[in-house]
Design goal:
By secondary structure, the protein is mainly beta. The protein contains no helices and 25 strands. The radius of gyration is 20 Å and the shape is globular.
Amino acid sequence: MELKHCVSIPISDDSCLPPAPQPTKSTRVCFVSDDTLLYAVGNTLRLSSIADDSSASPDSFIFSSTNRGVSSFAFNNAAKFVAYTPRRLNPEIVVVKHPEMTPVCTVQNGTELEYVALDFSRDGSRLAGLGGVADFKLVIYDLEVTKVKDVPARNPKKIIEIALPHSCDLVSFNPSDSNQVAVKAGNKVLVYKLVLLQSAYVVDTVECMLPVLSTSSVTTFIWGLSNVLFVGDSTGDVHVYNGSSGAYLLELPATSPNGLEISRVQSLVLSSTHLVVGCDNGLVQWRKMRGGGGAVLDSEAEVQQVS
């Protein structure tokens, strides 16, 4: 695999935008197409083209309804939905469709102060919101389709509200099963499994705990296929779990080239062939998968990395 630098975008440069609080956590970046990135900056969501030719379209923006910025956002590739929420009391979740940015629906009364994370199910039919201080709860909505004057419309319906043990700041649906959703909670990942009993959902909870002797904490995680969870920690290691049972499968110890100091795992990205591990010290590693689909890591394959 050949690594080639394509483009650098200074996402911290917001001189052309209204003032906003400095972010207290890392900036999330996601692809909305092969050549367009979506990320929060200032009081907006910004869509930036990374095309390297003159046909690249100019940047476009989604403006928050307040001057305190966007607290969280999510993108769903299947339905082309962008969900975002302004940073304010009793915030709503606004869902629009990319690239037209036409309104899809608005979710009200989900949390009291701030949503710290949002996520869509793989097909875009469900939306999860993670409430921060002071209610600490996970709320999941069905974005069911109804017809208004014979025009299909999304009608958000809350299907469950789950009280969390303490503050959590990352939520993700299992791409293989929209009835499973995971949250990052201190030194573990909690997997909530939704079960429909008659007309209401209840939950079973599975805990994916870091090893007993570990002094680290969970920093991030990502789902693979076949219910596999990859969990990064504050010492640079990656741990692999069965997300349905919580069983511990494998540890990938941190490695660092040329004496570079080992640091915490900041982000995990999964492709059809590699698990990509990004660390706080600027190191990015590609760990090869066996069989594709994010199910099994090839522990004997050479780790490719840049720093």
